[in-house]
Design goal:
- Keywords: Membrane, Transmembrane, Transmembrane helix.
- The protein has 166 residues and is mainly alpha-helical.
- It is built from six helices and no strands.
- Helix 1 packs across helix 2 (20-47) and helix 3 (54-60) runs antiparallel to helix 4 (64-98).
- The longest helix is centred in the middle third of the chain and has 35 residues, at 64-98.
- The protein is globular and about 55 Å long.
- It starts with 9 loop residues before the first helix and ends with a helix.
Length: 166
């Protein structure tokens, strides 16, 4: 799975770190931490071969009420906040991309990016409501390929600037 956080946080990390080297060290440490988390999930998945991820793992030790509470909190808070953050970031990036051809003030840019975020959330909700079996898998595949292309472009452009521009 490729998370979308890679497209949200680079600017903030670079600004807070103050240098490219320190931001790269931060990325490497975050990757190591994510790898440790993935290894834990691999261990849990092979030890408890049931579907349901965290719910199944917490229920396995007999804490079904806690597992139920966790599932609801994760669904209502964590997933909705993550989706809203991704949609807002999508809207901001689209507004930044069209900024050279539009004359939007900063408040108008913010409003347009929020409306774009609402639009993408509504489109995804409608897609999942009406055509989950037919189109959602294809859209997920296209989304993954787009992420891979974007990451490859970022790496390629970075290497180009590092090698040829110093």
């Amino acid at each position: 799975m490729i998370g979308s956080g890679i497209f949200i946080s680079p600017k903030g990390i670079l600004q807070q770190a103050g240098s490219v080297g320190l931001s790269l060290i931060t990325w490497v440490l975050a990757a190591l931490l994510a790898s440790l988390t993935a290894i834990n999930y691999i261990e849990l998945g092979t030890s408890i071969p049931e579907s349901g991820a965290e719910f199944a793992y917490i229920s396995y030790v007999g804490w079904t009420p806690i597992a139920f509470s966790y599932l609801w909190l994760a669904s209502l808070i964590q997933s909705s906040c993550a989706g809203a953050t991704l949609a807002l970031t999508f809207g901001e990036y689209i507004v930044e991309a069209i900024a050279p051809i539009t004359c939007l003030s900063s408040s108008d840019s913010k409003t347009v990016s929020i409306f774009l975020a609402y639009g993408i959330i509504l489109a995804i909700a409608l897609l999942n409501m009406f055509s989950l079996g037919r189109f959602a898998g294809r859209i997920q595949l296209v989304s993954m390929v787009a992420k891979l292309i974007a990451i490859a472009a970022i790496i390629g452009i970075g290497l180009f600037y590092m090698i040829f521009r110093g």
